[in-house]
User: Fold this.
Amino acid sequence: MSEIKLGDRVKDTITPFKGIVIGITKWINGCDRMTVQSEKLKDNVPQEPFSFDITQLKLVKPRKKPLKKKNTGGPHKPVSRVTKFKK
Assistant:
């Protein structure tokens, strides 16, 4: 894949767009893309993120701190339940 990782600062080599990688998608046809969020605000509002082919992006600055994994509410261990009731 690429040396670029989530949280890295990148620049598109075709347009002047710069930003932080906020997502990585792998497509069935082999076209891997990264979603980049601009750090600049437009009228004090964040701009829409854009997706680019990975090969089209250039690493500007790697993320200093590693990303911490957070519990996002995904699958959990099954909960045992009582199936027999006392009469």
